[in-house]
Amino acid sequence: MFELTELQHDALVEIFNMGVGSAANAMSRIVNEEVAMSVPRITFQNRADAAMALGDRESRRISGVSQRYEGSLSTDAVLMFPEEKSLEIVRLMVGDAVPMEELTEMEQEAMSEIGNIILNACVGTLANIFNTELQGSLPNYMVGSSSDILSIGDKSTDDIVLMLHIDFAIEKHRIDGYVAFLLDMMSMHDLRQHIDNYLAGI
Question: Residue 27 and residue 117: Cα distance in Å, rounded?
Answer without folding.
Answer: 8
